[in-house]
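[job 4471] stage=fold_predict status=RUNNING
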Amino acid sequence: MREISSSITFEIVAGETVPMKVTRSTRLAVSGGAVWVTRSDDVEDYWLEPGKTLRLRRGERLWLSVERGTQARVAFLVPTRPEQKALNWFARIGERFGAWLRSGWRTV
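[job 4471] inference complete, writing structure tokens
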């Protein structure tokens, strides 16, 4: 496995099985190629095509692999914290109010 960036994004190549432990609830996103996901405490396996996501539970273990002759990138996306969502909402309201005061014109 080769780390792609300082964020939690990895590239998985054919013939490699990557074990992972989920330490907080997150979402697994796939790009580049399909990924086979086996989860602890789950009788089902998951075949994720590029562009698909899978919600992961805190404390579960994963085993990730790809089809022979391919490679894929997987990213672990941490959900936005509630207080950050509230701040974003207030910022959008402020922008709309400011645009209304300027008659729809945006300043640069």
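[job 4471] summary: The longest helix spans residues 82-101.
[job 4471] exit 0
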